[in-house]
Specification:
single chain, 365 residues, alpha+beta, Dna Ligase, domain 1, D-amino Acid Aminotransferase, Chain A, domain 1, 3 domains, seven-stranded antiparallel beta sheet, six-stranded antiparallel beta sheet, 33% helix, binds adenosine-5'-diphosphate, binds magnesium ion
Length: 365
């Protein structure tokens, strides 16, 4: 019997793929691993589900002609969380499909709380609070360790809407480098942030003074996935250096991707770059184990990890279903390809446990 791995994509992504346009989902990279693990692939999107007849309108390699297939038993969910995709994911689950990744609370604060449940992660987790009157009261304490605090939209991405607050000369404060008044600076800052929080949810996060590469701050995008045997694995990491922007390393903000083997020796002369990378991997694996307890089935993550002057890793953000192109841009095609192989390996593992559960008469959700 053919085992079909369903890959649930956003509708517009699938349409771009069908039109032969380049998108960040490099679906052709699934093909070789699918052959290796003995799985067939079916691309589909939320609107291609026929609930009444319990089937999906799928596209298969290489021709992508539409075919109706029964609901795939295992689905790699690559859709963003919006209502139609969420309904599709819930429906697939009710049909008995094993769907990874699951729906999870999207906000940065929920992720922070999930990570904070692990004592071992705490030395690597910047303190964070929701922006609220109480949170504002704790602003001076958050500023203490590094002299900076990041103010981030709770559901933002791509560096949008992020502010950095720092101490200025005397008793003044700076927002994105500009002084917030001279006298009364703290009161004005509080008023300004309180105004912000009326429009949107934000978090306050302790700032980390990022290490520098070629004179500019950088952080790491660390891929973290479940792979063969369901084990967590780090297929690779890429460094992202801020260029145009003073403190955002996002590639969408003009950041550039670099291989860690170039960045770590340059940023930390005299230190063992492999030991630094190893510690980052160790922290990342811990993140996987911790988040899995909170959100079973989570399998496909991209961590933003900052390194401070001592090369200590700090988890700045956890991205779900991230775009996976940092390794491509950092010139590491083999590692980039691994970010597509791991989900297929994990899917194979899920098929195998379902088969075992079936043989012993147990049901596997
Ligand atoms: N606490 C922090 N300390 C230092 N730099 C940070 C911190 N938080 C974020 N940054 C910088 O801002 C970038 C964007 O922040 P992030 O939390 O990843 O938001 P987004 O979801 O918009 O990417 C990070 O990649 C990093 O360069
Ligand atoms: Mg980010």
């Amino acid at each position: 019997m053919t085992r079909t791995l369903g890959i649930l994509l956003d509708r517009w992504i699938l349409n771009h793929i069908l039109a032969g346009r380049q998108v960040f989902e490099a679906v052709e990279l699934y093909r070789q691993p699918a052959a290796e693990f003995g799985l067939a692939l079916a691309l589909f999107e939320p609107h291609g589900i026929d609930r009444r007849r319990r089937r999906v309108r799928a596209r298969r390699f290489p021709a992508f002609a539409p075919v109706w297939l029964p609901v795939p038993a295992v689905v790699h969910n690559r859709a963003l969380q919006y209502p139609s995709a969420n309904r599709a994911v819930r429906w697939l689950g009710r049909q008995g499909a094993a769907v990874f990744n699951p729906l999870v609370p999207a906000g940065k604060y929920a992720k922070h709380l999930a990570l904070a449940s692990s004592p071992a992660l705490r030395p690597h987790l910047p303190a964070a609070l929701p922006l609220s009157p109480r949170g504002l009261g704790r602003l001076p304490a958050l500023l203490e360790p590094s002299g900076s605090v990041f103010v981030k939209p709770a559901t933002g991405s791509r560096g949008k809407g992020i502010l950095r607050v720092r101490r200025g000369p005397g008793r003044s404060y700076l927002v994105n480098g500009a002084a917030v008044g001279r006298a009364d600076s703290f009161r004005r800052l509080r008023r300004r942030l309180a105004r912000l929080s009326r429009r949107r949810r934000y978090i306050l996060q302790q700032g980390i003074t990022l290490a520098r590469f070629q004179g500019r701050p950088f952080d790491l995008r660390v891929h973290l996935q479940r792979g063969e045997g369901g084990r967590w694995t780090v297929p690779g990491m890429g460094a992202r250096r801020a260029n145009l922007h003073p403190f955002l390393t996002n590639l969408t903000r003009g950041g550039s991707a670099h291989p860690v083997r170039e960045v770590l020796p340059a940023a930390f002369p005299g230190r063992d770059p492999e030991a630094i990378a190893e510690q980052v991997r160790r922290v990342a694996l811990l993140v996987g184990e911790t988040l899995e307890r909170a959100w079973p089935g989570v399998a496909d993550l991209g961590l933003d990890v900052g390194l401070d002057a001592d090369a200590r890793p700090w988890i700045l953000e956890v991205n779900l279903r991230e775009l996976r192109y940092t390794l491509r841009d950092a010139g590491e095609p083999e590692r980039w390809a691994l970010t597509y192989r791991n989900p297929v390996a994990y899917a194979r593992h899920l098929f195998d446990i379902r088969a075992t559960a079936g043989m012993t008469g147990r049901r596997h959700a």
